Amino acid sequence: MYSKDGQDYFIVDSHVALWDAREANQRNIHGKQFIDCFYDYHRNLSPESEVWSYEEYLYQGGQRLMKDLFTDGYVDHAIFQPANLGEFYHNGFGQTQEAFELTQANPKKLTYNHHFDPRNGEQGLIQLREDAARFNLRGVKLYTAEWHGESRGWKLDDPWAYRYFEACRELGIKNIHVHKGPTIRPLDRDAFDVADIDKVATDFTDLNFIVEHCGLPRLEDFCWIATQEPNVYAGLAVAMPFIHSRPRYFAQIMGELLYWVGEDKIMFSSDYAIWTPKWLIEKFVDFDIPADMTEYPALTTDAKKKILGLNAARLYDLEVPAGLEVQVPAQPEAEVAVGASA
Fold first, then answer.
1. How many whole angstroms separate alpha carbon 260 and alpha carbon 243?
2. Looking at the chain, which terminus has fewer C-beta neighbours within 10 angstroms, N or C?
3. How far is CA 36 from CA 54, 184, 224, 335, in A?
4. pTM (predicted TM-score)
């Protein structure tokens, strides 16, 4: 828990990963391109004191993750959002077994989400059901730009994707985290477009769609969708480090999200291990939207508490210590859209 100026903050880091990008796990040049792009984000947007060496960036391991998040980083609970990237890495990029074992050993601190790819057809549906039982899934992380044989991306409103969302509904997997953010080399920019969020959010109103990276650099498109769809949320992964490198740009991002989406549908994440949570949390608690940016709502202490943890805690039914709650409107009653399960 983080405390500052007499205020206590319950922290949920809603988007973390445990990866292995070491050379032995790289299947081809694209595995190196991918982690090199991550490292460029890390070293260009972090304070100098927080920059890791390239070697330690390739693989952290569970022990370091626990220290960076929970011992040093103020985090009360974190949610794994793994990417597979099987075309680039022999054993996948996100380390499923190690991350899940950490979750089993620390169930009050960690939640494990998994992934699926609708291009795997019927066999993938079978696998999703097995994964839901094995991992007790409450959520999944989707990477629509992931390569799959000759395919270099898919859309959330593809017919096969709808069958997977119907399975998620059946299995109680309510939180659908979708990477809709900056292009990562060598993935294709258009495969991360936010437009398909609009349709699936309308057709699956009983699922929550958390748009990771809040659609950047398509923030305006995302905001116009999220303001109309009560089950669409903004994840702050990638947006957060601009609080250091470009604070007025960060203020613009936060201001637009507060204006359009609202403080009850924004979720903090460090995007570990691209960045570590400690400095992000400290800077965010101290941050205010500049006084001359008068078109934006204030970023109040209660809003910061919701964004830093209470919103994610609500979606994942996490226990919040007594006295740390603030008033958060109840979620809209679940609806089943006509034709969504046809």
1. 20
2. C
3. 9, 9, 33, 43
4. 0.93
